[in-house]
């Protein structure tokens, strides 16, 4: 870490002695070196560090593996409904983290029996996805995306490939007609990840309208898709709940899976253990996907949980209504559970990248994400066998986010390849 990367120490928020010495997580100056940041926080604060978010808002960053496991296992004590937060009076309407913590009546913020009902219906609806069919769909989507740039001999694998593929796959799982897919994908991209010209709120409104129409159409004509299975589910969800939860599913799937693909391609194209040689010998794609979940997990920090009552955690006094952030990346690299990080993680899937407990990424979403990510990496390496990163690997830039870990761009070069239209 260079001097300019050193996280700034924030003044303690008024009336909060526990946050003296808290580290500001808003500067993003350490985005290139988050592993170093987590080591430093662990060294100075232990398993639970006082941090300050944008606008001086205090929170706890849970860094220890055992502590993240404990917090996520105790959903009555560390609960998910953000209306429990005691800080709402000091949160401005334009607070940049509102999209993550602003209460919505979706599965994300429900608790207890109501959460189990909503999340169980999502699991059952996702469980109806035929994974072999999903794999073929993803291979077809991958071929089409590669066709669009294969003749150029160059591409940005984040914008041209990794961001689009999971979104197209999930939209297909939801049974959206092909004719409506481009508009929905454009609006979803704008609402999840606004560029300068987009109005994310208007785009989100259009997404909601479109999903609403999709759900209405499935009342008349059910199909082999996720919305139809949610409508038919014994949980008896209302249309409004189904619309909210479908948007949550699509949004929850898109960015993490896109970054899982991007981070895996980066690893395979820049680390000689995975590099292609003419004589063959590529380490398995499955191994690279798993290593990324340990070392560069897509959801590096998840916001969050709120304490339902006063309690203690790793020697810290946690007050009712305090906000806790799940430090998933830090937990995965906690020396208490991985004393020898260099030993690698082959075969070990005990990482917390899909979180844990009641609100973890619902089964079988992690499996579906793996089918999507694996197909994406396989087809790309198959179609462009001499693909290589077009810049010095050390200059690849991570996005300025403490929440998601993904590259701004992954520029690559390869021998121009023929299009595969008709192959699939
Ligand atoms: C097909 C792809 C995916 C789908 C459909 C999906 C779906 C979901 C849903 C619906 C939730 C909300 C669960 C709840 O609040 O009860 C969730 C949470 C989550 N997902 Fe996924 N997801 C996908 C891929 C991924 C990937 C690739 C990652 C990271 C490697 C990931 C990590 C997480 C995490 C960390 C949470 C938060 C859990 C918590 O609050 O403790 N997901 N996902």
TrEMBL record:
Can you tell which superkingdom this protein's organism belongs to? Bacteria
Q: Which CDD domains does its entry note?
A: CYP_unk (cd20623)
Could you tell me which InterPro entries the record lists for this protein? Cyt_P450_B (IPR002397), Cyt_P450_sf (IPR036396)
Entry's Gene Ontology molecular function annotations: heme binding; iron ion binding; monooxygenase activity; oxidoreductase activity, acting on paired donors, with incorporation or reduction of molecular oxygen
What family does the entry list?
Belongs to the cytochrome P450 family.
What's the name of the protein?
A: Cytochrome P450
Organism name: Peterkaempfera bronchialis
């Amino acid at each position: 870490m260079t001097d300019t990367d050193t996280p700034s120490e924030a003044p303690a928020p008024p009336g909060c002695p526990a946050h003296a010495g808290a580290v500001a997580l808003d500067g993003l100056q350490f985005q290139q070196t988050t592993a170093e940041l987590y080591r430093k926080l662990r060294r100075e604060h232990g398993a639970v560090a006082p941090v300050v978010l944008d606008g001086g808002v205090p929170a706890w960053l849970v860094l220890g593996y055992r502590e993240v496991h404990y917090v996520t296992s105790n959903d009555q004590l560390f609960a998910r409904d953000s209306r429990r937060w005691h800080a709402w009076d000091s949160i401005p309407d334009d607070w940049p983290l509102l999209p993550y913590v602003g209460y919505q009546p979706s599965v994300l913020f429900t608790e207890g029996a109501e959460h189990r009902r909503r999340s169980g219906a999502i699991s059952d609806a996702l469980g109806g996805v035929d994974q072999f069919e999903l794999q073929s769909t993803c291979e077809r989507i991958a071929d089409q995306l590669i066709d669009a740039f294969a003749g150029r001999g160059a591409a940005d694998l984040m914008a041209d490939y990794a961001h689009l593929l999971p979104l197209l796959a999930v939209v297909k799982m939801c049974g959206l007609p092909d004719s409506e897919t481009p508009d929905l994908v454009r609006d979803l991209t704008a609402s999840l990840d606004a560029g300068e010209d987009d109005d994310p709120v208007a785009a989100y409104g259009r997404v909601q309208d479109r999903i609403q129409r999709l759900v209405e159409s499935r009342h008349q004509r059910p199909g082999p898709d996720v919305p139809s299975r949610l409508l038919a589910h014994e949980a008896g969800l209302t249309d409004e709940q189904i619309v909210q939860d479908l948007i949550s599913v699509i949004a929850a799937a898109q960015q993490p899976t896109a970054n899982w693909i991007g981070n895996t391609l980066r690893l395979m194209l820049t680390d000689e253990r995975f590099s292609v040689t003419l004589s063959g010998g590529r380490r398995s794609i499955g191994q690279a996907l798993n290593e990324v979940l340990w070392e560069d997990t897509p959801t590096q920090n998840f916001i969050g949980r709120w304490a339902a009552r006063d309690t203690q955690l790793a020697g810290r006094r946690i007050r009712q209504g305090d906000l806790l952030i799940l430090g998933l990346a830090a937990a995965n690299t906690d020396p208490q559970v991985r004393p020898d990080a260099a030993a690698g993680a082959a075969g070990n899937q005990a990482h917390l990248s899909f979180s844990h407990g009641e609100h973890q990424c619902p089964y079988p979403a992690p499996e579906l994400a793996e089918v999507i990510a694996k197909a994406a990496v396989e087809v790309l390496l198959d179609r462009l066998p001499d693909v290589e990163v077009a810049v010095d690997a050390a200059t690849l830039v991570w996005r300025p986010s403490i929440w998601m870990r993904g590259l701004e761009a992954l520029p690559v070069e390869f021998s121009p390849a023929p299009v595969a239209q008709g192959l699939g």
